[in-house]
Design a protein that fits this description.
Elements (H helix, E strand, L loop, with lengths): L2 H14 L3 H13 L6 H17 L6 H13 L1
């Protein structure tokens, strides 16, 4: 598979995604290629965001994740 084919497949798959958290994580991965990261600062920022998410109820339980995985396997 060449680069153009891979890009086409990835773009097609990304267009199907309707999960904001997953897309945000993907964007973080892509953004990390652009600038060097100070890992200790980034780690602390990520922890702060995660703690805010938990306080706001933006998280999944272990059982909810297991259910999502089972649903993905069926697709």
């Amino acid at each position: 598979m060449n680069t153009l084919e891979l890009k086409t497949i990835l773009i097609s798959e990304i267009e199907k995604i309707d999960d904001n958290q997953f897309l945000s994580a993907l964007k973080t991965i892509l953004d990390s290629r652009k600038t060097p990261i100070n890992y200790s600062e980034r780690y602390n920022e990520d922890l702060k965001v995660a703690e805010e998410d938990i306080q706001n109820g933006n998280y999944y339980s272990h059982n909810e994740i297991k259910d999502q995985i089972e649903q993905w396997k069926k697709k």
